[in-house]
Amino acid sequence: MFPPVDELFRWKDIWFEGTPLAINKTVILILISSALIVILMFLGSRKMALQPSGLQNVTEMTYEFIDNGITKDVVGHDAERYTPFLGTLFLWILFLNFWEVIPGIQFPPTSRMGVPGFLAIMVYGIYLFVGFKHHKLKYLTGHLFPPGVPKPLYVLVTPIEFVQLFLVRPFSLAVRLLANMMAGHILLTALALLTAYAVNNVGVLKLVAIPAFALNVAVTGFEILVGFLQAYIFTLLAAVYIGDSLHPDH
Amino acid sequence: MSTLLLAAQQAGELKAGLQSIGAGIVYGAAAIGPGIGIGLVVGNAITAMARQPEMQGTIRTTMFLGIAFTEALALFGFVLFFLAKS
């Protein structure tokens, strides 16, 4: 009755089948949301008025949310140059996550490992680059041999810190986003299938459709929250890692 | 001959079934610790917010960070679930 998990996430190629550049539903959604963000942000910042109205309000609120809530709080007060990167990251993940609840589309591209994996590798490269640029080799020694630890304990602490810095951070960053969106998509599919199964049944079983459908609507609302929260947490963690590379002592 | 085939088929089914049970146990066990941990993090954050409502913003950010780090263990369980199933 329930289709194999592969069928929920693997879409048929539409153009250029069989080549690495094959285009399917995931790619189309990614391109559409990228274009949407560019258009919205361009229209919102085209005619800047001293008294903002309409779309300019939304643009400014988004920027201030990232700048005050994430960059200044977490990366540092002198780190405004990271706001554009973090803002783009947040908006992109947010738009991709929201495809999960748009009727008729209902598929989050972030539930394919390619998207969160690429973003995590990008954040990984940036925080390592920033760390080595600002602190040279002290970045590595400061992390692998944290001060204030008794010397014999380095046998235990150094491998743990190494694995944490180079493996656990990017891996958990990617898998967190993937797992949340994947679980949400499977849950919504299961509830929708249950509703359809109950409607097509006979007798008392038809009544199961009512709570199943109500639950489906409720979970869809919950998934909006999850999509926002995951975009926020991804950006927050990227900011924490970059801030940790900028000021490793606190 | 047919009994041999049947036995081989049953062995394959047994293996698939055991794999599914193992995968289920892996994720169930991996979710226990993070469940308790996230409960502790959020509970203490609510206590802190009730005591000092003016620190709400900072506490909420730190709470999400704590949740994110605690959740990492459950995520390893999620990945192991797929590894154990296939």
What does this structure look like?
The complex is a heterodimer of chains A (about 250) and B (about 90). With about 250 residues, chain A is mainly alpha-helical. Chain A is about 70% helix and about 0% strand. Chain A contains eight helices and no strands. Chain A has helices at about 5-10, 25-45, 55-75, 85-100, 115-135, 140-145, 155-200, 210-245. Chain A is globular and about 70 Å long. The N and C termini of chain A lie far apart (about 55 Å). Chain B has about 90 residues and is mostly helical. The chains are: A mainly alpha (about 250), B mainly alpha (about 90). The interface of A and B includes residues 168, 176, 229 and 240 of A.
End-to-end CA span of chain A: 53 Å
Mean pLDDT of chain A: 89
Which stretches of chain A are low in confidence, meaning pLDDT under 50 for 5 or more residues running? none
Q: Report the strand count of chain A.
A: 0
Shape verdict of chain B: rod-shaped
Number of helices of chain A: 8
The main sheet of chain B comes to: none
What's the helix count of chain B?
Answer: 2
The helix-strand sequence of chain A is HHHHHHHH
Q: Count interface residues per chain for the largest interface.
A: A-B, 14 and 13 residues
Radius of gyration of chain B over all CA atoms, rounded = 22 Å
- By helix and strand content of chain A, what is the structural category? mainly alpha
What's the total number of strands of chain B?
0
Proportion of residues in extended strands of chain A = under 5%
Task: Estimate percent helicity of chain A.
Answer: over 70%
Topology (elements, then pairings):
The complex is a heterodimer of chains A (about 250) and B (about 90).
Chain A: H1 5-9, H2 25-44, H3 55-75, H4 83-98, H5 114-135, H6 138-144, H7 154-199, H8 209-246
Helix pairs in contact in A: 2-3, 2-4, 3-4, 3-8, 4-8, 5-7, 5-8, 7-8
Chain B: H1 2-51, H2 56-85
Helix pairs in contact in B: 1-2
